[in-house]
Fold this sequence. Notes:
- There is one protein chain.
- α3 links the parallel β3 (81-86) and β4 (115-119).
- The protein has one domain: Aminopeptidase (3-Layer(aba) Sandwich).
- It is globular, with a radius of gyration of 19 Å.
- By secondary structure, it is of the alpha/beta class.
- It has helices spanning 19-27, 35-46, 93-105, 124-129, 151-160, 178-192, 216-226, 285-309; strands spanning 51-60, 63-71, 81-86, 115-119, 167-175, 206-210, 240-241, 244-245, 251-254, 270-276.
- The chain starts with 18 loop residues before the first helix and ends with a helix.
Amino acid sequence: MNTAPDSYPIGTPGSPWGDAERAEWLSRQTRQRSYEAEVLSVIERLRPRFGVEEYGRMDYGSDSYPLLAIRSRDWNDDLPVVLVTGGVHGYETSGVHGALQFVDQHALEYADRVNLLVAPCVSPWAYERIHRWNPNAIDPNRSFYENSPAEESAALMQLVAPIRDRALMHIDLHETTDTDETEFRPALAARDGKPFTPGGIPDGFYLVDDSENPQPEFQQAVIAAVEKVTHIAPADDNNEIIGSPVVAHGVIEYPLKQLGLCASITNAPYKTTTEVYPDSPRATPEQCNTAQAVAVCAAIDYVLAQWQDS
């Protein structure tokens, strides 16, 4: 794995960024792939089978990105609602393509059992630039709260508002990558004028539960299914994953709402955030996408069983 730089090339160590530093950072970002070719075209091919709606549009300079959501065509208010989100961090590729793979290959299996709402690429500008932040150097996944400074986050919250209290489950698809350690954590420290403390990147898949409402059996059902596709991240020598105590096999907990995380945007009793490790020598891109899709299926299967028994 690459090591982190001694200092970040933008800004003065110990001093938070101002407008000049943010502008310099933005000037370094370049388009590396196409949201239209890789995401929108896939969604278009799904239109014959699903409802597709534009729930917002991100206009950044000369770039304009429609935000698209996919939903069950025959919405039935008597059925529970399941929310799937991906690409909140645009560089986390399998979150986007795993969500699309789930819709393409599995969603119709649940057509008469749940209402599905899928936002596969919440941050298209960052998707194209393979970055964590939006153009304003804001992390959308720390911005899910009232009067959000991130347009991507605000648009998703508006989309979800009608089902916030009706959702049974929300699964948010993410990755933990080597570039978290070599680029994104050093950039965060530099942006905020704080020292960067090197850490480690776990080799494998893991989940983040809600410490305010943990659902350990739900998390383990997802872990058990994914373990058939790819390996689960072990705890480090401190029994932690990325600095958080491991509470069960492949599971850590965060206070989702307190941190403004995407998985906090509904009052669903079942919530989880997936973390795939695409840089592992033991995992291919296809495995990573499949792991995300399998996680969604396992999560839905578990909550449906609980809902039907209630």
